[in-house]
Amino acid sequence: MKGPPIKVNRAETAIRVSGLDFAYTSEPVLKGIGFELEQGAIGLLGPNGSGKTTLLRCLLGHVPLKVGQVEVLGHDMARTARAARAGLGWMPETGGIIPGMSGVGLVAYLGELSGMPARDAMQRAHEVLHYVGLADERYRPCEKYSQGMKQRLKLAQTLVHDPSWIFLDEPTSGLDPRGRVSILELIRDLAWNKNVGVILSTHLLADVEAVCNEIVVLRKGELLARQNLDGVARQPRQIFEVEGFGDTEGFLAGLAALGAEVTRDQRLLLVTLDMAQVAGEAGADGAWDAAAGVNAILTVAEAQDYALRRLRRRPVSLADEFYEMVEA
Amino acid sequence: MPVYDRGYTHWERSDGRALPAWLVIARRGIIEPLKKRWLLVLVLAAWVPAIVKGGIIYFKLKAGDMVDLLGGGWTSIEPEGFLNYLDKQHFFVFVIMAVVGAGLVATDRRDNGLSLYFSRPLDVKGYVAGKTAILFFFYALVTLVPAVALCVFAYLVAPEAAGMELLLLTPLRLLVFCLLTGTSMALVLLAFSSMGQRSIFVMVWWAVMVMGTKTLASIAEALGRGSLRVLDFMAQYDNAGTVLFGAARSIEVSRGVSFLVIVAWTVLAAWVLRRRIRPVEVVS
Question: What is the ipTM of this complex?
Fold first, then answer.
């Protein structure tokens, strides 16, 4: 109950989780989770019920931690979660608005609860509401905001006390496409330009692709994968979309000789090439040159007298990676 | 730099002093209801008995002991008379605490506000302390404040008034009594509020607690079972308070029992609050 003379330790920004088990009842929700995150933009992915929101709650110290260790900003969340929360921002998926207050009143109020002097909190409230694009609406009662405005307001309250990390649970939920793009731009700006760590929990893979440089994938409470998104384009097995006519059997035989796997998708042939076999070595940045794969397929097509109508490397999407991981 | 020129910047802490979180909650919870005109009218109405009592004390000067015929402790400026005054405020206490307090936790639970509060450097104790302080403020506004004002007024107008008693001892008794009673009642109401998500249901439960138990106890008393007055929630506070004000017990229940009943209700309320107020709803 003592006042919070809490100062955020900006020198220690890491999140460390080890051996974390958690259950609300007898059914385990998180099982042996362990990872270490440096400040950046992290996408938290997983099917429904995989434990994403529970993991965020553990990182916030919202639930009692009994097995395993969670350390955030240098604080053990089982013991000193209150102090750590001065440096964390939380944007819940549902609710998160206190009716009866104006936008600026709500944000300033939550700033004060985070340990800010009243004057600082009010000034910051104006600033962050301006930043999220609610400057003109800040004096309206927040329960009368549209869904998009509510999401922006929730983002503003997340930022008011200048946290080192913000945890966003489905931040684009219920937004129209334009609103979604603009809120993702804000989140991306925070993560990439403003030195704010972001953990983005969402079902929308495109949101993660737009914002994050790293993903953590959960499935049934277990950590399935942790991957740098730059690495996705560096996968040696890449897919090419081919459409044409002529001696299809001969063309397929030629591709088989290249070591390619071919599947059909309506009129398209999806040709999976092992780029290490076709191109030899990746470039200096680790990315494979698509031209090597295209040339190899062109050569086979020419040899088999197969006329090509379309040939391109299928963009490697996070969705492919994600579903591959989850379904594996 | 003007606000409209700034993008996102990091916060530069000023020299200002941050208030404790519970005080921030209390301040906001007190100011917001006071913006409502009807609540101010209600508070003013709650002051009417004090004004009446003050008038009676004044007219006792003019009309002498005739005014004593009014009875009911209206003319008394002894400590017991002030306890009597507080007893008459029960209705206003009931109403004002219901309208201010019913939604204090229920609304936060309904709107997922608890997870917002507890994502800040705030613990359950701080949250409950803030909400309790809101209720205590409004409780004191219709009990302690007018009663102390009456003490001062009585000292100024009553010829037989003793300064030591009216300016120090009685206000001190009132303060201790209201502090304990107000806090205990606030915790009980908050416990009700934490058990629902709609204010109207909390009000109904509060009405049952205050009016329902009183009616039940009155029926039991009419049937000759005076000891069942122990069921009357509000009466226990006055009965236990008679010790503090040096008065005879007000109901057919020993003051020790009344005190134990109050402690039991308060502990039960604290236990409920501990179980119900948390950032995450667990549905098993």
Answer: 0.87
